[in-house]
Design goal:
heterotrimer, A alpha+beta, B alpha+beta, C alpha+beta, A: alpha+beta, five-stranded antiparallel beta sheet, globular, C: alpha+beta, 10 strands
Chain lengths: ~240, ~240, ~190
């Protein structure tokens, strides 16, 4: 439904009798993206539910952009801004490849996204991003961003609506954060990380209305990128 | 309308509006449907406006929202089609290209805080294969592609019906019936609609929009006649 | 969280005024009788007041009825007490946890106005409620025994409070079973 935004009192209306609606350029279309990085792999997962208030206009929206064979960008938040941001990033990537005759590395992409987001510091992209990829040595890393480009390079990141539900689970199972001495910290394999991701999203889909439908899991390894689709609850 | 202290005028709310547009992607094309009313608040202002537009031989467009903004979009698209024609390269513009072009136009307007207050449904076929393409663009630049699309009240009323009727092998002829049924339900329940509708079908053979025709409606339903508040019954 | 013939309630022990930590050892869960606990999150003055109020009401109940109150009845008592203040509420959100006479777990959470939400598996409330929900949803299994229940409850509490700057500074877990109550204190991140 159309959103007229909050009414703004027209200047000069002393006791606020006249109200003028204002256009709200933002909208939250839901969605969650998450990523786990290992020694030689990264998995990026995103749900495909597109929500508008309490409605679901479509159940199959893609939130992940393939930047190149080693790096992917996942975005949750407003779909219009996501689309625009992805186009800007793709274009900048192609320009880089033309200018430098080499593929963009993970570190280059993560820095570029930060500056692209900060360019719009005073009218931000309503997007919550993660950049996931293999660095030059083949080790997996992820960067999580806020809407204006502040980022941190880590091994596990969640962003979007289901973050609060999923991040503690990843802290516990991947980082072994609640262990007293860190003994027995697991080095998750690709399969274990994928299973953990599916569990986390399934739990998030139970309790968060904007998470559900299908989960797209992209697995980035030195052999390339594979996609696995996993069905989540559709209610 | 005035949106602030500055002298430039921005669109803040729509005035002359069209209600829902619905679309269904079929195995051999797409079907779009819309009624022919534009309303001025609660006034049924123009009852014979076409809310569907044939963009090219392989693409149709339906709008909901502000009529004047759609007229602007219509002339932009017509210019686009003219320059396509002048290119004379025998490569027809794909529906996806038109969809993305409109998405950029809408996003640009939104970035200037002066949106084109519409939700547009683009339906077309890939000229080579006849495979259908159905997409939506809205006033914020939100764009997506789906097998079934509805705007306005259609999202609440028609979309569930379209989802139920959809099969991957549904034909345009069957789709047309489904769209007509959905338009009928919308007429029953949307207070800003009328029973004169148009349906646009796009197949490999081309895009055609029917003349406006009146829907057959029945007001004999038990629940319509009996009214609400029967024990255990309701008109909801 | 419920288990097989047992139920656990856990909370952190921080008392804060927005970002300032005032105390690190405040009890937030109160034993109402041997098989019933009341947990109160939110404004601490209301927590203390309500605890005293319910202690009084239960004493009166025991005197009149000659028996301990059942968890379900107590939950309804809490709910109506909160609703009495509908237009000037207590700013607390309670959890009622107990074992009924057949040793079946009873769990129930409420909002500040007393809207009851009875759950068979787990209830979470407080500043890190979403984080707790996600963690509980992932790790909860049906029919856990006491040890497993303790493990899951303490891990989920730590996981969630570690991600919330307003919670933490230690945790307490009470496990109620037909044998009695076991209380364990957990050392969490002290920040």
């Amino acid at each position: 439904m159309m959103d007229f935004g909050t009414p703004v009192l027209e200047p000069g209306s002393a006791n606020g009798t006249k109200q003028v609606p204002q256009f709200n350029p933002y909208q939250d279309n839901g969605g969650t993206v998450a990523s786990i990085a290992g020694d030689d792999y990264v998995i990026v997962a995103a749900d495909t539910r597109f929500t508008l208030g309490y409605s679901i206009p479509t159940r199959k929206i893609s939130r992940v952009l393939k930047i190149n064979d080693k790096v992917m960008l996942g975005t949750a938040g407003m779909q219009a801004d996501t689309c625009a941001l992805h186009k800007v990033i793709s274009t900048r990537m192609r320009m880089y490849e033309h200018d430098n005759n080499k593929r963009m590395t993970f570190n280059a992409v993560s820095q570029m996204l930060s500056t692209v987001l900060y360019y719009k510091r005073f009218f931000p992209y309503y997007t919550f991003n993660i950049v996931a990829g293999l660095d030059d040595k083949g080790e997996g890393w992820v960067c999580g961003y806020d809407a204006i480009g502040s980022f941190e390079q880590r091994k596990i990141v969640c962003n979007g609506a289901g973050t609060k539900l999923m991040q503690p689970v990843f802290d516990n199972q991947v980082d072994w954060a609640q262990s007293w001495d860190g003994a027995g910290k697991p080095n998750l394999s690709l399969e274990q990380a994928t299973d953990l991701m599916k569990d986390a999203f399934t739990s998030a889909a139970e309790r968060e209305i904007t998470v559900g439908d299908t989960l797209q899991i992209y697995k980035i390894t030195k052999d390339g990128i594979q996609l696995e689709e996993f069905e989540l609850k559709k209610d | 309308m005035f949106g602030g202290q500055d002298s430039k005028q921005h669109t803040v709310q729509p005035y002359v509006t069209g209600t829902s547009v619905i679309g269904l992607k079929c195995a051999d094309g797409v079907v779009l449907g819309a009624d022919t009313l534009v309303s001025y608040g609660s006034l049924a202002k123009n009852r014979k406006t076409s809310r569907l537009m044939t963009v090219s031989n392989h693409c149709s467009l339906g709008f909901s929202g502000e009529y004047s903004d759609f007229q602007e979009i219509k002339s932009t698209l017509e210019e686009l089609m003219i320059s396509e024609y002048c290119m004379a390269d025998n490569i027809p513009m794909q529906p996806r290209a038109i969809h993305q072009y409109l998405a950029r136009v809408m996003y640009e307007a939104r970035n200037k805080q002066d949106p084109l207050y519409n939700q547009l449904v683009i339906g077309g076929v890939l000229p080579a294969t006849g495979e259908g393409y159905l997409g939506l663009v809205d006033l914020l630049g939100t764009n997506y592609e789906s097998e079934m699309i509805a705007t306005g009240y259609g999202t609440y009323i028609a979309l569930p019906l379209l989802r139920k009727a959809y099969r991957p092998d549904i034909t345009v002829a069957e789709g047309r019936k489904v769209i007509e049924d959905c338009l009928r339900v919308l007429y029953y329940r949307d207070a800003r609609s009328i029973d004169t509708v148009q349906i646009s079908t796009v197949t490999k053979e081309g895009a055609e929009t029917t003349e406006p025709f009146k829907l057959e409606t029945s007001w004999d339903f038990k629940k319509f006649k009996a009214g609400s508040r029967l024990i255990d019954e309701s008109t909801w | 969280m419920s288990g097989d013939g047992c139920v656990a309630i856990a909370s952190d022990t921080r008392l804060g005024q927005q970002y300032q930590t005032i105390a690190m050892d405040v009890p937030r869960m109160f034993k109402m009788h041997d098989r019933l606990f009341l947990g109160l999150t939110g404004l601490y003055t209301d927590t203390q007041t309500l605890y005293n109020l319910f202690k009084f009401k239960l004493s009166m109940y025991k005197m009149r009825e000659g028996r301990e109150i059942s968890p379900e009845t107590f939950a309804n008592l809490v709910s109506s007490t909160l609703y009495e203040k509908r237009f000037g509420p207590y700013f607390t959100e309670p959890i009622v946890v107990g074992l009924d006479k057949d040793n079946k777990p009873y769990l129930c959470g409420m909002d500040l106005l007393g809207a009851l939400a009875c759950e068979p598996d787990f209830v979470t409330l407080g500043t890190s409620t979403e984080m707790l929900l996600g963690a509980c949803e992932t790790f909860y299994r049906e029919n856990m025994n006491e040890d497993q229940l303790f493990e899951v409850v303490s891990q989920t509490l730590m996981m969630a409070t570690d991600r919330d700057c307003l919670s933490g500074w230690g945790g307490v877990v009470h496990i109620i079973s037909k044998e009695g109550i076991t209380t364990k204190t957990i050392k969490t991140r002290q920040d």
